[in-house]
Amino acid sequence: MTNMMETAQAQLRELLMDALGALTAEGKIAAEPLPAFKIEVPADKSHGDFASNIAMASAKALHMAPRAIAELVLGAIRFDGTYFEKGEIAGPGFMNFFLRRTWFSDTVQAVIDEQGEYGKSEGGKGKKALVEFVSANPTGPMHVGNARGAALGDGIAALLEWTGWHTEREFYVNDAGNQIEKFGKSLSLRYMQICTDKGQAVYNANKDDVEALAAAIYGEDGNAPDFPMPDDVYLGKDIIIHAANYFTENGAKLADLSEEERRAALVGYALPLNVAGLERDLKSYRVVYDHWYRESTLHADGSVDRIIDELTKRGFTYEQEGAIWFKAEQFGADKDFVLRRANGIPTYIVPDIAYHMDKLVTRNFDKAINVLGADHHGYVPRLKAALKALDVDTDRLDVVLMQMVMLFRNGQPAKLSKRSGKAIGLVTLLEDIPLDAARFFFNMREANSHFEFDLDLAVEKSSQNPVYYVQYAHARICSILRTLKDEGLYIEKPMNELPLGDSAQETELIRHIAAFPSEIAAAAKVYDPSRVTKYAMELATLFHKFYDACSVKNAETEELRASRTAICRAAAQTLRNAMAILKIDCPEKM
User: Fold this and answer.
1) What 3-state DSSP class applies to 298?
2) Which residues pair with 405 in a beta bridge?
3) Dist CA 282 CA 152 (whole Å)
4) Pick from 310, 162, 187: which is nearest to 241 by CA?
């Protein structure tokens, strides 16, 4: 797994250290401990490929002017047999270094040799990470925020995999608690409405079209006069459809049961269908989970009660007005909070604490990464406070907070799908725009940035559309290579045997290709797939500049044509690898 940027940087550091060692041995500088110094890539490439502040950093320790140190170091460096051609001094003592052409050739060859493995590294080798994302409420369809969370979470998991982590994806199914009670109440009310005379009349008129039946009962705002609903229930049409489908299959047999029995039966019927629907819809979005972890298992096996018992045993709880409170402030949270209400029912956070104990203690993941909505910002320190009280290293839990998405069409906020008339969730979004565009657009901004998703731009076939722009660059390279083959001009030779041209566009493109492994490692470290989309767009731009400045087919010599052919192959492969992380296609023709 080659990283030519790291290779060059390590080689330069060794050259600098060897030079200082030689100067010390010759008595030209004092034998003093060397302070930390930096080796960086200058923004302006006329200042070299790498720059170092070693002379500036060591001036105080060596009691010498930085420029004098730089002159001594530069005179002591032996560039022969390295990737570096020369060094220069700038200003008061900054040092700039320039790479030989062999480094550029070896970079291109490394991509060609490693193909789909290029860009991978092993920083996380031997470690396990669990990425939990989406975890949408299973009582209804996924909203557009879940679509962003799915692309983001899947991208984070892929980045970790590319950097050597054993990574698993998990969906936490909230199939217990208040939302399930509300789900059962909603289903029961709609079912009983269908069982009334008015409901039977509407049902008989529309029983062959469940969508029309739902619309007839739903009314304008979910609360039709003949079928009123209280405020504390779900008003979505999906609730009516579940109730109607159950009625179609089983009739009115639940009408004479107790409310508790009826709700249990309807939840038992509808919830598995919803979870299966979530799994199906996410698969259509190229998101496949290793685990679907159900909250109900934590209640069933006693894990929830054990959390409260253990915190109480450790002296970290107190009773107030019949409720059991956790001393969260003692562990860094903003305030104490209730674990068990006076009615004996645990609060929502207790199963979450049990769930994270399972992640970090029972299953012993080195890292648990949660992708959550920004509205969870107050919840995170409370969860970590409880884990800290239970002796869990909370540095092993990282939370990525994701801001809201605003959909725009014709410059205005979009609330409904123009095709289906439904609120835009994941499914209706993918009816309106290509899947590749959705996954690319949702990863164009950092998670903590609000995102305005332009639905019109996402379907536009022009260079203004970022995903189209990147895919077109790949298709253009494939077209160039096809033409060369069709005309008998395609030559494959090891790049280290070929010359580079004199064009700055060639070297700029190769530098960017060389930066890919480091960029992926950096993106994984901060859980930011948007760095991949930015990288891909810049790579596409640099390729177009290269193509405009450097003819491949009509290169001055056969060897130069072969060299530029290799550069094209390396650029295409790097684009494919970047898009593979995001599970976005790279078409060969457009």
Assistant:
1) helix
2) 451
3) 13
4) 187
What is the identity of the amino acid at 567?
Answer: I
This prediction has a pTM of 0.94
Centroid of chain to Cα 3: 22
Cα separation of 4 and 153, whole Å? 29
Three-state DSSP class for 167? strand
CA dihedral (302, 292, 578, 51) in degrees, to 10, reads 0
- Tokens read off for 390: 């239970």
Give residue-wise pLDDT tens across range 333-342.
Answer: 999 999 999 9
What's the one-letter identity of residue 561? R
- DSSP tag of 76: H
Q: Pairing relation of β-strands 397-402 and 166-173?
A: unpaired
Residue 401, classed as helix, strand or coil, is: strand
Burial classification of residue 115, based on how many CB atoms lie within 10 Å of its CB (0-12 exposed, 13-18 middle, 19 or more buried)? exposed
End-to-end CA distance of the chain: 32
Name the packing angle between helices 66-76 and 54-62 (round to 10°). Answer: 110
Q: In 3-state terms, what secondary structure has residue 301?
A: coil
Please check the confidence at residue 510 and state whether its pLDDT lies above 60. yes
Count of helices and strands (H, E) across the chain: 22, 15
- On the 0-12 / 13-18 / 19+ scale of CB atoms within 10 A, 46 is exposed
Q: Can you read off the two tokens belonging to residue 541?
A: 């731009």
Residue 531 near residue 461, CB atoms below 8 Å: no
Q: Tens of pLDDT along 339-398?
A: 999 999 999 999 999 999 999 999 999 999 999 999 998 999 999 999 999 999 999 999
Rounded to 5 degrees, φ, ψ at 170 are -140, 140
Q: Is residue 421 scored above 60 in pLDDT?
A: no
- Give dist(CA 352, CA 172) in Å, integer: 10
Instruction: From 576, 518, 535, select the one nearest 444 (Cα to Cα).
Output: 535
Spatial separation of the C-alpha atoms in residues 128 and 572, rounded to whole Å: 31
**Consecutive H or E run containing 397:** strand 397-402
